[in-house]
Amino acid sequence: MFRLIGLVVSIGLADSLNPSTIAPALYLASGEQARRKVTEFTIAVFVVYLAGGAIIALGPGQLLLSLVPHPRRHVRYVIELAVGIALLGGAALLWRHRQTLSRRSLPKADPEGKSSVLLGATITAVELPTAFPYFAAIAAIVGSGLDPARQIVLLVLFNMCFVLPLVGIMATLTFARGRAEDLLSRGRRLLEHHWPTLLAGLLLLAGVFVVLLGATGFASTAHNRFGRIMRRFRHILHP
Q: Cβ distance 34 to 169 under 8 Å?
């Protein structure tokens, strides 16, 4: 369970640097009733992302799991390695196209818009089908063989990590007060020019961590098997 928590947290933190959610939140933070609107936006993103992940994990995910109701440990380690390699591939792709991506305009939102809840829900629903890191985390969660309740807990943990930058914007609006606008403007400029590089770095770190989880799992399994073989061999020699 602790291995899976580490995997979910690492992918969730890497996926949290998402310009599709952070950029609109920064725009909302520049308008009237900023804290309320950013809070509503954050809650909508969290709820819709969590609901989408739960539908996938408890629907098609449980159907696949029913075919292999008790996944062996080595299967779980294979999933971890596959997830880690996929994250590394995503990091490499982002790094390769970082200059092109950084020239694209970030998503915009009308700070005076009537419904920040609808904005957050719409953006998240549109982005969900292409949420590659989220799907990787869901695959690892479903492949773990845990019961649905604990899978939901892990999905909640992932989404808490995912909305951390939005929570940070809310905290800035709450505690920075007079300096909030300046701090958030700096954050937006940093995001505009460097988000592909930053996201590639986070995906790289998450990918390395997840690959190491899978590799150490395989090594532990191999060590245990070798130990059992040696004990049987000694038993044969010295009955």
A: no
Q: What's phi and psi for 146, nearest 5 deg?
A: -70, 160
d(CA 172, CA 127): 26
CB 45 within 8 A of CB 158: no
Whether pTM exceeds 0.85: no
**CA–CA gap between residue 98 and residue 155 (Å, rounded):** 29
What is the residue-level pLDDT of the chain in tens, covering all 239 positions?
677 888 899 989 988 888 888 888 888 888 778 889 999 999 999 999 999 989 888 877 655 555 445 555 566 777 778 888 888 888 898 888 888 877 766 665 554 555 788 888 888 888 888 788 888 888 888 877 788 889 999 999 999 999 999 999 999 888 877 777 777 877 777 777 777 888 888 888 888 888 887 788 767 665 555 455 555 655 555 55
Q: Which residues contact 177 (CB under 8 A, 6 or more apart)?
A: none
Domain map of the chain by residue range? 2-237
Burial (Cβ within 10 Å: 0-12, 13-18, ≥19) of residue 227 = exposed
Q: Among 202, 169, 156, which Cα is nearest to 49's?
A: 156
**How many other CB atoms are found less than 10 A from the CB of residue 70?**
7
Q: Is the dihedral of CA 147, 153, 155, 157 positive or negative?
A: negative
Helix pair angle (2-16, 164-175), 10° resolution: 60
How far separated are the first and last CA of the chain, in Å rounded? 38
